[in-house]
Amino acid sequence: MSNESLANLLREERRFAPPTDLAANANVTAEAYELAKADRLGFWAEQARRLSWETEPTETLDWSNPPFAKWFADGKLNVAYNCVDRHVENGLGDRVAIHFEGEPGDTRAITYAELQREVSQAANALTELGVQAGDRVAIYLPMIPEAVISMLACARIGAPHSLVFGGFSADALATRINDADARVIITADGGYRRGKPSALKPAVDEALTRPGTENVRSVLVVRRTGQDTAWAEGRDVWWHEMVGRQSDQHTPEAFEAEHPLFILYTSGTTGKPKGILHTTGGYLTQISYTHSAVFDLKPESDVFWCTADVGWVTGHSYIVYGPLSNGGTEVLYEGTPDSPHQGRWWEIVQKYGVTILYTAPTAIRACMKWGDDIPAKFDLSSLRILGSVGEPINPEAWMWYRKHIGGDRAPIVDTWWQTETGGMMISPLPGVTETKPGSAQVPLPGIAATVVDDDANEVPNGSGGYLVLTEPWPSMLRTIWGDDQRYLDTYWARFENKYFAGDGAKRDEDGDIWLLGRVDDVMLVSGHNISTTEVESALVSHPKVAEAAVVGATDPQTTQAICAFVILRGGATAEDEGLVDELRAHVAKALGPIAKPKRVLPVAELPKTRSGKIMRRLLRDVAENRALGDVTTLTDSSVMDLIQSQLPGAA
Ligand code: 6R9
Q1: Who lines ligand 1 at CB under 6 A?
Q2: Ligand 1, residues 515, 537, 615: which to mutate, most atoms within 8 A of Cβ?
Q3: What are phi and psi for residue 85, nearest 5 degrees?
Q4: 402/294 Cα distance (integer angstroms)
Q5: Taking the model in full, what pTM does it have?
Q6: Which value does ipTM take for this structure?
Q7: How confident is the model over 623-651, as pLDDT tens digits?
Q8: In the chain, what are the domains?
């Protein structure tokens, strides 16, 4: 970014107060901010008492070698014990932990007592396969209960897991196996996607032919689809045979609070993926606290549903470790929102009486595109809190979510965080915060975040800059696996003593924080830094636009020119007379003439990662007529061919 702060264009005046009854009974009230402000470390030490420790920690934070943090370092605990066994010991064995809904419609309710038995069996199986505390286990599974059970089994024996999204290519899998030096892989024959079995095991077989994966001893294979599967004798073992014959008793061992819990790779824009390392005690403390505070979870009555994939950090923290450490009941769904019909999610909400729904803006925009009449066919009155994560949520998508899913009643919590932060960092609290469409608003109690300019000075209200975190937090990444220097360079070199998140942000007149997208995506137009998020939100506020992705393409006159890719809705087509000019004028009216796109290109799809984020760098390659960069983390690589074939002038 240049020296000028991010242009601050959007005006949003709508406000929504917390429902009175929710505020009156909320788990967390405004007092939490005061307590945490008065004694931040004391606040986190208090939150650590939510967990069951074998050895209680006496030390909260060791920051003697910044930015390498140690939280609760002299404490010992077992994560799986905290997520499963202690609930059974507390008499909650019959409570459903997981309502599993397979894409073909098969279902399973798993109680905490059953979960304890299955996790114990899986832990015994891993031990029989020679896995010891500290050994890495790669998990490449669809969204089935065995994914959760495998993660908990690894945690139980102190073997850090490394999940790789089912559907990533053999190459992506091989790189991650190699970097983590995994010893065992847990996979499945396949999973169901859009009504069809989709094979997984062949990618594992292929990955294991690549150099650097020789240390993998065993592949544990869940039978999910029953499809034919190649078999390497001596290496491959069926889950139902190996896990099935184990004892369902297993005594968990306590590990030090800083024992590694998992590695999770983030792709970034260049270079090899970064293995983000999370550890045990601090991670579980913050995940458990934020899951309870931000969703106001009442474990005895709520039914929670996070629609993320377990292969994304959102799935780790808010499908596995948050809900289960809090003894909650949750839904786990294998498939896509539109299979076999576009109302599938709402049918699931109705069926299980889901009370808290956590999803991503990309999914909300897809539902908007399919039409209001689809959710209207289902009873969604059980919903009392809605969450959003993954990208800035466009104000119009926020309003749609509130009205058509939340019955104009349920508060929305827009939660900003990252793989690196481990858990939520900036978010409204549903019983406290007056919400604003499109803003994550305030750092959670115990979290210190702010917005600074190029010289690391805090920006005044009403201005934009870079989002930074100014104090360590319990679930922070500890390093990049095997690369401390890259950890320092990526996050701690840009500003002294501050964590650089890589996101642009602004503070509004009330001091609330608005996220403006990745700083790599910020556009420089005639000397102004313009956020992609704001231009996209202006486009999405037009009734004929379902989704928009905006990039800055090199331009001889203005340095960069704004180029917008849009998905149309309501029957509008690229051929509609005057539509492109209408959209350009709409943006100019909403944000000012400087933000008017030079080009608007209607397309049928946008390139997205498996976690639903728009990959703007690929669109920049298109807009600048370059060969495409790395596409290995795309959900569907044919999308780029489609976009290129739709461009004016394409053959
Ligand atoms: C949890 C997760 C992190 C990046 C982050 C930011 C974007 C996530 C957001 C958001 C605006 C939100 N992001 N939540 N931007 N508002 N509520 O998404 O982790 O996959 O590592 O991505 O996602 O750009 O820096 P991860």
Answers
A1: 266, 313-314, 388-392, 414-419, 440, 501-503, 515, 518, 611
A2: 515
A3: -60, -40
A4: 17
A5: 0.96
A6: 1.00
A7: 998 888 877 777 777 888 888 877 776 54
A8: 20-78+254-505 (3.40.50.12780), 118-243 (3.40.50.980), 526-646 (3.30.300.30)
